[in-house]
Specification:
The complex is a heterodimer of chains A (115) and B (194). By secondary structure, chain A is mostly helical. Chain A has three helices and no strands. Chain B contains twelve helices and no strands. Classes of the chains: A mainly alpha (115), B mainly alpha (194).
């Protein structure tokens, strides 16, 4: 019984100390909140947004162009191999299918192990 | 009444921003800029880094505004993006081996306090000595009042991990502030009776 009491008292004291530390931390952080922060004017923000929207559009155009170029190269390669070298076409198909199955199973296994 | 009006106004601004209205975006950012910089100042402990990261966070917001679903407050969404931006920056710096070490983190903030003739708080120094993956959850939990689940989601960690990091972080702060030593001197009898 006595042992239990001591444990409770100790844990209560630990909690109080934690509470004190948290309170001190909050006070310290509040001081940062009192720091004056220079806020730029509305035009500066607008300019920044316009610049960022332009960057976003440029990136989208660049990504789409790269995607279509790669797709075009792969498709032309496939069509050429289908008509000129059917054996290679079939081989590529088999290798791609095996790769997709292996990749998907490894991903699923990794996810299951992680959970 | 005032709060609901404010909420409606923010909602309208977000809707217009999603449509690509740059003025709505600018107004949203201008309104939330001090909050964002102060949050970043607390986690980075460096006013210059905070301003730099605030700009990066706003740029990310413009890119990802379509992902904001309105379920949480806009400031909460900003905090989550800012947190990830800072974590990414830290990882990048560690990879580049430009990392100055934890000792250096709070010095700039201390200098700013001193230059404004404000008293420096030992707690901030203790917080600055913690690694950023411990400092961030402590600030988010105990200053902003976010839940372990929310913090875990943003930092891509389980709520249990966040909880233990906060707990251990507070213990380190206590140790740094010498709060632990009081226990030993005040409770010697209890220890022997156990």
């Amino acid at each position: 019984m006595k042992k239990q009491k001591v444990i409770i008292l100790n844990s209560e004291h630990q909690d109080k100390q934690d509470f004190d530390a948290i309170h001190d931390l909050q006070e310290g952080l509040q001081r940062i909140d009192q720091f004056p922060v220079y806020t730029p004017n509305l035009q500066w923000f607008e300019q920044m947004v316009i610049q960022e929207q332009q960057n976003k559009r440029k990136k989208l155009i660049r990504d789409l162009s790269v995607f279509f170029m790669i797709a075009l190269i792969i498709l032309s390669g496939m069509i050429v191999s289908l008509y000129r070298m059917p054996a290679i076409f079939i081989l590529v198909q088999i290798i791609t299918s095996i790769f997709i199955v292996l990749y998907t199973s490894i991903r699923i296994m990794k996810k299951a192990n992680h959970v | 009444m005032g709060e609901s009006e404010d909420y409606c106004r923010m909602d309208a601004l977000i809707k217009n921003a999603k449509k690509g209205d740059h003025l709505a975006f600018a107004m949203l950012f201008k309104e939330n800029y001090p909050f964002l910089v102060k949050y970043l100042m607390k986690i980075t402990m460096n006013p210059d880094t905070a301003e730099e990261l605030a700009q990066e966070t706003m740029a990310k917001c413009v890119q990802k505004i379509h992902l904001y679903n309105g379920q949480s407050k806009f400031t909460t969404w900003l905090v989550s993006i800012a947190t990830n931006t800072y974590i990414d920056q830290c990882r990048k710096k560690k990879r580049e081996k430009n990392w100055q070490g934890q000792e250096e983190v709070y010095r700039k903030l201390k200098w700013h306090f001193e230059s404004r003739n404000e008293e420096w708080n030992d707690c901030l120094e203790a917080l600055g000595k913690l690694p950023e993956d411990v400092r961030i959850p402590i600030i988010l939990k105990h200053y902003y009042g976010y839940s372990y689940e929310e913090i875990g989601e943003w930092m891509k960690l389980s709520p249990g991990t966040i909880k233990s990091r906060v707990h251990n972080g507070i213990k380190s702060v206590r140790r740094e502030l010498k709060l632990g030593e009081e226990t030993e001197s005040h409770y010697p009898e209890q220890r022997t009776s156990r």
